[in-house]
Structures are given as structure tokens and as C-alpha cells.
Amino acid sequence: MGYCLEMSTGDMRTVVRLLTAVERTERQERTLAGVRTECERTDARFREQGIDLDVSIGQALDELIEGTPSTDLCPSYSYAFYQVVAAHFSDPTDLGDWRRPAWFYAMDDELTRHGVPSGLLPGTFLFSGPPLRLPHPGDAVPAIGTLPAQQAAALADAYESVLGRLEPEFRDAARRFAELMRFEAEEWESSRKLGTNLDTILFWFH
Question: Which of 14, 99, 122, 180 is the 20 to 30 Å CA partner of 4?
Fold first, then answer.
């Protein structure tokens, strides 16, 4: 069994505003309607697969908006939060399938051995969690992680500087992250010049 890792970029403030608004604008209402439809589609897909969630993803969305999760342990809230993010962020970039998420902690050890700072390690940003407190999913996946876009250039620099010294099993992943973060750093600089705030890179392991 493999797990999919995806990445997208956007303004996290718009996500938080939708989930915490006391009175939503018409645009927010339209966005929320689309998010609810996607949550219902995911619920239907899980039912077809025989996956039984204690709280439906649609219900989890409503509870997040109301600020009253009915449990401390359920993956539905992570799926609901992700659908809100997906409505505001860029189309996801596929970072591949991984047999076990814990592999990235071994990559952390390898990068640390070569001097990469802790804040730039994949185990730190891939599994850091969302900016809002959610009930725990109850397992290693789904997992949400974020990295400030302003750190993308530093990450690319750090990984590029050690690529030639990494053990072979970590080299391709480090190169992929370096390439993507170099691109994201350029996009962030461009967005700032245009007056937009694409400040967050979100990682979704599912």
C-alpha cells in the first residue's frame, strides 16, 4: 500500500477567514458550497470503498465552521480542512507515492548529518499540522504540513549544497524538493511584486 504526497500553494489567511467568519460574504458562501460538494463526494467514495468514518466529512466541515468538533480523534476533519484549502490554493503538484511516511524521518537524519537546519527537514514541514487545531486523524495519514513560502529559497539552497554527499536512497527526493522549492521561491517573489500573498506551501499526505 502506498500513500500519495501532494503540494499546493496559496494564501492561508483566506482559508482561516472562511472557517472563522462570523458573517460570510457572498463569495465565501459560494466557495463554501463548492467545498461542501467535494466533502460529500469524498464521503460517497469512502462508502463505496467500505471505509466507515465515525463523523462524515460533510459533518466535520460544519463542525469546523461552528468551532465545535464532536470528537478529538477522527480523520474526517483533516479531509474537510483539505477541501477548504483546495478551494483556495493552486492545483496540487504530485510528489509521488510513498510506502511509508516514516521514511522521511530517516531522510531527516541524513540531512541533519550534513548540516541542514532542523526547520528545513522534511519530517518537520511535511507533518507540522494545519494552522488551526484539528482533531487528531488517529493514524499517520492523512497528514497536513505547511512551510512558509519565504523559506523555500533557503530550503532549495540547503538541499542543493548537500546533494552530492547524500546517500543514494535520499538523493532523488532531495533533488525533487530542491527543484520544487526553487520554483516556489521564484513564484513567491513574483506574487509579492503583484501585490498578492501566496505565503504558504501546503503538503497533503493521504
Answer: 14
For residues 55-67, one letter each, b for 16 or more C-beta atoms within 10 angstroms of the residue's C-beta and e for the rest, the string is bbbbbbbebbbee
Residues in Cβ contact with 46 at an 8 Å cutoff, skipping those fewer than 6 apart: 52, 53, 57
pTM for the full predicted model:
0.94
Query: Using one digit for the tens of pLDDT, what is the confidence trace for 136-188?
Result: 999 888 999 999 999 999 999 999 999 999 999 999 999 999 999 999 999 99
Contact between 130 and 145 under an 8 Å Cβ cutoff? The reply is no
Low-confidence stretches of the chain (pLDDT beneath 70): 1
The three cell numbers of residue 202 are 501546503
DSSP state string for 55-124 = S-HHHHHHHHHHT--S-SB-THHHHHHHHHHHHHSPPPEEEEEES-TTHHHHHHHHHHHTT--GGGSHHH
